[in-house]
UniProtKB/TrEMBL annotation:
Keywords: Chaperone. This is J domain-containing protein. The lineage of its organism: Bacteria, Bacillati, Actinomycetota, Coriobacteriia, Coriobacteriales. Signal peptide: none annotated. InterPro entries: DnaJ_C (IPR002939), DnaJ_domain (IPR001623), HSP40/DnaJ_pept-bd (IPR008971), J_dom_sf (IPR036869). One of its GO terms (cellular component) is cytoplasm. It comes from Candidatus Olsenella pullistercoris.
Length: 323
């Protein structure tokens, strides 16, 4: 750097230039001399040294004092090797290879100045554009019947890869116990990668239709079992279907109340999160009261009612009228 030129001269600004004017001048010269743009590396070093000092309020104040007392402009700043009393090393001294590498990567050296704002991250962009990149994942949704979800199955599905428009066909295995919203990943069947990068994955989400009787709760299955008022009162043994198509016998004890739930372990759906296990089947009794009675039924029920002296509403009547 020429010893008779100050940092202000190098940047082409006045001594009283504002911070914005200094930054603007540096941007312009850095874009002109940056090595990545085919510029002069030595001149780029000079403008960088100047900006490093003038962009820092403390360093600029010391530098201005040196100029006032007749110091040699630039000789004692930026690691230029001068021997004056104000000598110190700035953060751009030393091996410039690391500095230039940082600037090419848009790391924002020199007092927080981000070179990517000038070159659009050209160095890092070029590196990124040549780097193998994995393709993004693709997602599809398949409709599955409730029965198919219980027992498992296989579905041949065709989907399109967006980047190429290419249609691809895949045999999707639906595991026994699949539930609504369950996801399965097929590696390497998604979008194509770039520069030799791997393909993304295909994520399949199942949309399971509702069953008219069975309701899923994870691997557990719940159902309601209607029984007559007579069966609930006298007791009964009732056949209960299970998700796997078999039938079990439920003994309804005499006096069973509406809402009573019975549990059958290991008769629910297969548990896809714990292979080899199944959930439970929960059967809730719903007592059905007849709405239309024959005369014979009515006479019989009235006779039973008149003979019944149980206090069914004892607790309720405690809060009734006191008068």
């Amino acid at each position: 750097m020429a010893s008779n030129r100050s940092y202000y001269d190098i940047l082409g600004v006045k001594r009283d230039a504002s911070d914005d004017e200094i930054k603007h001048a540096f941007r312009k010269l850095a874009a002109k001399y940056h090595p990545d743009a085919g510029g002069d590396e030595q001149k780029f070093k000079e403008v960088s040294e100047a900006y490093t000092t003038l962009s820092d309020p403390k360093k600029r104040r010391e530098y201005d004092q040196m100029l006032m007392f007749g110091g040699i402009p630039g000789a004692d700043f930026g690691g230029s090797g001068g021997r004056g009393r104000y000598t110190y090393t700035t953060n751009v001294g030393g091996d410039w290879t690391d500095v230039f590498n940082s600037m090419r990567g848009g790391d924002g050296v020199f007092g927080g100045f981000d070179f990517s704002s000038i070159f659009g991250g050209a160095g890092s962009a070029r590196a990124a554009s040549n780097r193998p990149t994995k393709g993004r994942d693709l997602t599809i949704v398949i409709d599955v019947s409730a029965e198919e979800a219980f027992r498992g199955g296989e579905r041949r599905t065709t989907y399109r890869v967006p980047s190429t428009g290419e249609e691809q066909t895949l045999n999707i295995k639906i595991p026994a116990g699949a539930y609504d919203g369950s996801k399965f990943r097929y590696r390497g069947r998604g979008e194509f990668g770039t520069n030799g990068g791997d393909r993304g994955d295909l994520v399949v989400t199942t949309h399971v239709a509702e069953h008219p009787l069975f309701k899923r709760d994870g691997a557990d299955v719940r159902m309601e079992l209607p029984v007559s008022v007579y069966e609930a009162a006298l007791g009964a043994t009732v056949g209960v279907p299970t998700p796997d198509g078999t039938e079990v016998r439920l003994k309804v004890p005499a006096g069973t109340q509406d809402g009573k739930t019975f549990r059958f372990p290991d008769l629910g759906a297969p548990n896809i999160k714990r292979k080899g296990t199944r959930g439970a089947l929960y059967v809730t009794v719903r007592v059905k009261v007849p709405t239309m009675l024959t005369k014979k039924e009515r006479d019989a029920l009235e006779s039973l009612r008149d003979a019944d002296d149980r206090a069914y509403r004892k607790e309720v009547e405690r809060y009734g009228s006191k008068h």
